[in-house]
Amino acid sequence: MARRGIHRLTERKIARVTRRGLHGDGGGLYLQVSPTATKSWIFRYEHAGRAHLMGLGSLDVVNVEEARDEALKLRKLRHTGVDPLDHRRAERAKAALAAASTMTFIDAARGYIAAHRAGWKSGTHATQWIMTLLGETLEGEKTANNYCAKLHPVPVQSIDHNLVLQVIEPLWHDKPETASRLRGRIEQVLGWATVKGYRSGDNPARWRGHLDKLLPAVGKVRDVKHHAALPHAELPAFLPKLRAEDSTAARALEFLILTRRAHRRHYRCGSRGQAADAVAAPRPRIENVDHSENQKRRGASSATLRLSVCCARNHAHPPSARRRRCAGVSRPSDRPATFGKHDAQAGEARQRAR
Fold first, then answer.
1. Interval 176-219: pLDDT, tens
2. What is the pLDDT of residues 190-201, one digit of tens each?
C-alpha cells in the first residue's frame, strides 16, 4: 500500500529505483532520475500561477534527511509569500558582494595578468603591465614608479572615477602616453572584475562618454616630438648594431632601411647646388639603373637584391614596352592598321561622295 503524506520514500526504494522521472517524497520534495540513471533532489512549488522546479543537489552529495530539512525551510518561505528561487538569487548576490569586498584592485590586477599572460607574445608587453599596475618587475622586485599604489588596497567594488583620476591625472600632462595606456589597463582590469562578479555598474575608467569629459585628448596635451633622423653617413655603423638586436621590431626596421630607396625612387638627393641631405622633387624620369652593386655594399640580403633589381627593370621598361619589343614592334605607330566593319563602310561612303 502506497504511503501518504510526507517521507514516502524509504532508503531501500531510493537505492533501487531506476525508472526515469520524478518520484515524490511528499511536501513538494521529489527524487529525480535522469535518462543516465543519475539521481538528484527537486523541490516543486507554484508561484503566481506557474509551477517551478528548484534543484537541491545530487543524491551523492545531499542525503534524504538533508533534502527533507531543506524542503521544510522552503515550505516555510512559501508560507510567508517568498519565492524560494528569488530568495536563493538574493543570497547568492549577497555572497558575491561579500567576496567583492575582499577582492582588492591588486588582486584583480594579478588575476587579469595571470589570465591573459599566455596570450601576450611579447615579453615587453608583460613587463609593462606588471610594472604599471603592480609596481613590480618580473622577478617581483619593487620599482621606483608605482603608479597604482593608491588603488592597490581598495576593493574593486569601491573604485570610482575620482580614484581613477587621482592615479592618472598627475601623469596626464607630463607623460600623456603613459597615462593613456595606464587608464586603458585599469579599465581592462575593472572589466575583468565585473565579468567575474566582483563588482557591478559602469566602468569608472572608460574613456568614451566618461573620462573624455574630464580630461583633454592625449593628442591635444602637447605637440608630438619625433626622434631625430639618423644621418646617412652613420648608417653603415648603425646596421651591425641593429642586426645584433633579436626582435621583430629590429628586423622590421632593417627591412625598411634596405627597401627605403624603392619608396623614394621619384626623388633625388644631394644634387648639384644643394646640401648633401636636401631632398628635391623633380619631374618624373625613367632611368635604366642597376642598383645591385650599391645594395651589395649596404649589406642587403639576396632577397632584397632581387626585389630592388626587379623594381629597377620594371621602372625603366614598363610592361607595355616589353610586350611591344617582344612582338617586334618598336613604336605604337609601327603596328599594322586594322579597321572594323563599320570603319570600312564609312571609308567607302566617303570615296563615293568624292
1. 999 999 999 999 999 999 998 888 889 999 999 999 999 998 87
2. 999 999 888 888
Answer yes or no: do 322 and 256 share one domain: yes
Is 36 found in the same domain as 83? Answer: yes
Please, are residues 175 and 216 in contact by the beta-carbon 8 Å criterion?
Answer: no
Helix (H, G, I), strand (E, B) or coil at 56: strand
213 DSSP assignment: G
CATH, residue 115: 1.10.150.130
Residue 111 shares a structural domain with residue 209: yes
Provide the domain limits for residue 317. Answer: 234-326
Question: What whole-number distance in Å separates Cα of residue 29 and Cα of residue 57?
Answer: 12
Place of cell 622577478: 139
What is the pTM for the complete model shown? 0.47
CB crowding 214-252: b at 16 or more within 10 Å, else e? ebeebeebeeeeeeeeeeeeeeeeebeeeeeeeeeeeee
Give the number of other Cβ atoms within 10 Å of residue 195's Cβ: 9
191 shares a domain with 269: no
313 CB contacts (<8 Å, ≥6 apart)?
Answer: 288
> Rounded CA gap, 220 and 212, in Å?
12
